[in-house]
Protein 1
Amino acid sequence: MPEIIFDCCCLSNFALSGSLFILENLFKGSVYVTNFVSAEILRGIQQGHIDLEKVQEALMDGWLRETVLSSQKEKSLFEKLSVSLGLGEASCIAVAKSRGFIFACDDRAAMREAGLLEVKLTGTFGILKKAVRRKTVNRNEGNLILAKMIDMGFYSPIKSLKEI
C-alpha cells in the first residue's frame, strides 16, 4: 500500500466530521503528517476545535505517523515552497516528492505546485470515493459525511458523491 501524507485541511475534514476511521481503514500503517501539520492541528485544538484531538489520539495509537524533514533535499524543497505555501503544505509536498508518497490536499495552490513536481495527488473527494468503492462506507453514509464536512466549514463545489 502506498504511503499517503495529509495536509491539515484534508485531515481536518475527516477529523471534524467524525470519519477518521475511513483513513484508518483505507490506509492503516501508511498515513503520515509532518510535524508542521501536527502543530497546525494543535493550534486548531487550542482555538476550540476539540474534535481535532482525535488526530492526536490517532498519532498515539500509531496508525497515523508523524514525520519530519530528514534530508537536505526535503529541506531545500520545503524552503522553496514555503515562500508561496503554508508550512504544512510545503512540508508535505517536500516529503511526498522525496519519498514517493501520495499527497492528500484540497488547496488549489498546493495541488498546483505538487502537480508541477509530479507528486501523486488525492483529496477529500477522492478519498470518499475510494471509501465507497471499497465498501468502507456506502454512498448514503459518504454523502452524510460530506454534508457534515460542509457543515464544519469545508468548501465543496459538490453536494453529493454522485457528482464525482
Note: The mean pLDDT is 95.
Protein 2
Amino acid sequence: MESERIENEEQLELELSRPHPGTVEQLRSIGGDFLVLGAGGKMGPSLCRLLKNACAAGGGQRRIYAVSRFSDTQVRDRLESAGIRTVRADLIDRGAYAGLPEAANIFFLAGMKFGAGAGEHLTWAMNTYVPALTAERWSGPSARIVVFSTGNVYPFVEPGSGGADEQTRPEPLGEYAMSCLGRERIFQHFSAARGTQTVIIRLNYANELRYGVLVDLAQKVLDGQAIDLAMGYVNVIWQGDANNYIARSLSLASSPASVLNVAGPQALSVRSLAERMATMAGTAARFTGSEQPTALLSNSSRCLDLFGPPMVSLDSMLSLVVDWVQRGEKTLKKPTKYQVRDGKF
C-alpha cells in the first residue's frame, strides 16, 4: 500500500488488516482457532481482522475470538460485523477465565501503560497477574502463545549501534518497563515448566493514522509546538506490517520461549522526521533541547530476515499521516510518550 491518501476510518481499517501473501501461507500451515486477548485496544481490532482475512484468503474456515471488556461498543459491533466472535470479559477477574473459549493459538495483547505512574499496583496487576492467569488457563505443548511486550525493556543505546537486538540484556527503566519484563518472565516460566510454545514480541513503535510517534510529531508540527529532541531517534513501523509480522510469529513459538523484535528497519532522526513533515505541510518545525547520545532503539534484523521488509515505506507513512492530521480526521488522543527518558509514563 503506497497510497497518497486514506479517506476515512473504514479504508484505514482495511489497510491495517490486509494480510501479506506470506502471512496467508504461514497461517495456512498452522492449525487451530485463534483467540485474541485484550482485543479492544489500539492493535487488537486490526489484528483480529487480519487473522480473519488471512484465513479466508487461505481457504480456511477457522474461528477468530476477540476477548475484551469492550468499553467501546462500536469496536465490538464492527468486529462482529466482520465475522469475528466477541466475548466480553475482564481479564483481571480470575473467574472470567473458565468461560473463555478453547483455541490453539493465543495472542496476548492485554496490558497497561498510560497512567502507570498514577497507579503502579494496577500496572503490575495487569502486566504480571493477568499474564499468570492466562498462562495457567492455556498451557502445555498443544498451546501456542504470542505475547505482546515492548522495546522499553531494553536499555538506551547509541543511534549508530543498530539498536538493541534479542540478545541484549534487558535493563528496564521505571515501573512500567519493569512490569513488562515481569510479564515476559511469567510467560517464560510457564513455557519452561509446562512446555507451552511461546514467542514474546518486543514492539517499537507501531504507527497508523490515529496513533503513533508520527501522529504525535505531525500534531506538534501543525500546531506550532516545540518538539523535544532529548529522545532524538526512534523506530517506526506501519501497524499493518507489524500485524503481519506478529501473526507470522506463531511459527516461532517454542519452549523455552523465544523473543522477536518487531520494529522499523532503521533508527530515524526525530528532527529529520519533523522537518520532512513540516515541508509537506508547508510550515516550519520548532524544536527544544538537543539530541542525547542514546535513545530507545530496537534492531529488527531477525524479523526482516525471516519475514521480509515492510510493505509500507517511511515516505508513504509520512505523507499519509500529514494528510490525515491536516484534514482533522479522528485520532485516538493517546500520545505515545516516546520522548520520555526517565521511565515515568
Note: The mean pLDDT is 95.
Protein 3
Amino acid sequence: MINWLHTFQPPAILFSAGPINIYWYGLCLVTGMAAAFFIIFYLAKYYEISRDTIFDLSFWLISGGLVGARIYDVLLEFPYYIEHPGHILAIWRGGLAIHGAIIAGILIIWLFARRQNINFFKLSALIIPGLALGQAIGRWGNYFNQELFGRPTNLPWGIPINILNRPTAYINDIYFHPTFLYESLGCLTIFLVLFLLNVWVIKRQRFPKMFYVWSLGLYMILYSILRFMLEFIKIDTTPYLLGMRWPQIISLVMIAAAILLLFSPHARSQK
C-alpha cells in the first residue's frame, strides 16, 4: 500500500457518461454515510430505538450535515467564494468542513431528541460510532481530489500531488504528507474504541445513562486531539487566531466543552 500511495496519482472522476461525471469524492462520501448508518442500525436495537426513528433522523442528519459542512467552509474561505460564487454549490469539488457537519449534527440531534422525547445523550451516543467510521471512509475523498494534504515530505508514504494542485510556495515539491490517511486511520481507531465500548456495555446487558454522556465527551476529546495535531502539518489556507489555525481553535473549544460536559452537575445526575 505504501508503494501504491507513493507512485499513484488518483483521478478525481470515477467515470463519465456524456455530460455527467461521477466523482470519487462523492462515492467516498456516500460509502462513508452508508457504513455509518449500518453501524447505527446495528446498535439501535440495543439502545431500544426503532428503525423508523433512525430513518427519520437520517434524512435530517445527511441533509443538515451537508448544508452545515458547506456553510462552514464557505465562511472560512469567504474571499475565495466572493470571487467564485458559482463554486458555492459545487460540493463535488470538495469543501465540506467536518466541524460544520458536527455542529449542525449536534443541533439536529438535540432538536430531534426534544421532538421525539428521547434522551439527547442516548441518541448522540448511538450516532457517534457510526460518525467516526463514516469520517474514516469519507476522508479518502480528499485523496482523490488531491486536497488538504500536508507539508512536503521524503517519507516513503508521501503522496505525489499534481503541479496544478500544489500551492505556489511548494510548486517545486512533489511528495506531501497524506494527512487524509492520518485522519482516516485516527478516525478508524476512534470508531473501534467507541464500538468496543458499546460491545462491552451490551454484554453487561445494561446501558447506564452516564455511558451516553461519556461516549459523546470521549468522541469530542479524541477527535479534537487528532485534528489539533494534524493541523501542524497542513498547508491549506485557513484563518489564524492567536497564532493557531482556525481548526485548532475549534478543536480546543470542543475539548473544553467536552470537559465541562463530563464534569457538569447534569452529567453527574445521569446515573
Note: The chain is about 65% helix and 5% strand.
Protein 4
Amino acid sequence: MKIIFSNTSGIDIEQPQPASKFVPDWYKNMESYTSKERKPSGSGTTTATIKRCMPVFDAITAGYIITSPADVYVSIKEKQQYFEWSTLGLISFHPIEQAPEHPSRKPHAYPKWNNPWAIKTPKGYSTLFTQPMHRESVFTILPGIVDTDTYTAPVNFPFVINDPNFEGLIPKGTPIAQVIPFKREGWQMEIGSKEELIEQNSITQKLQTKFFDRYKSMFWSRKEYK
C-alpha cells in the first residue's frame, strides 16, 4: 500500500519520514534490562525494561512523522501566550468557543499547526493524526481521523501548550504529528464466551514457558512503514 505526501507550501521543506527514524533518545539510550544483563530476576520473571515491550515499540514506530518546517517562539504577554514565526503562515487559531468543554481546553484560543502536507491514501483507507507517541513535547495536538482517500487537502493540527507558563522556542524539525494510515472496516462488539476464556488461558500458559521476549517471539508481527 502507498501513502502519498504532497508539499503544498511552494518551498523546499523537510519531508515526512517513517516514525522509526524519530525514535526518542530516552528510548534509544535506555537499557533493555534493569540488571544490564539478559537473565531471570530470581522470582520467575525477568528484569526486562519497557524497551523490550513490543507494544510500546510498535506505538513509537507506527506510521510517519510530520515535523515543524520552521521555528516558532512562544512568549507570554499579559498572562496570555503569543506565538511568533517567520514564514509559511505556520500557526492559525480556533476560537475557544469551538470547543469550550474539551478536556485539553485553555483559557484562550486553540493554536493550530497549518500543515503544508496533503495526504492521500488508497481507497478504503483513513488516517489517524495524533500526538507523536511516547515523546516528550511542550505541546499536545488534538487527535483526529480523516478519510484521506477522498479528502486529500492538507489536514491541520489544533494543539495546546501543556504548560500555560511556557516560554521558549519550538525549533524547526520538531515532530508535530504522527500519521497512521489504517483500513476502514465495520466492527461489531461481542462479549467473549467460554471458548475465548479457554484461548486466553492457553496463551497465558504458553507465555510462561519462556523467560525472554515472550510476546515478541510467539505472537508479534512486524509492521512496516517505508
Note: The mean pLDDT is 92.
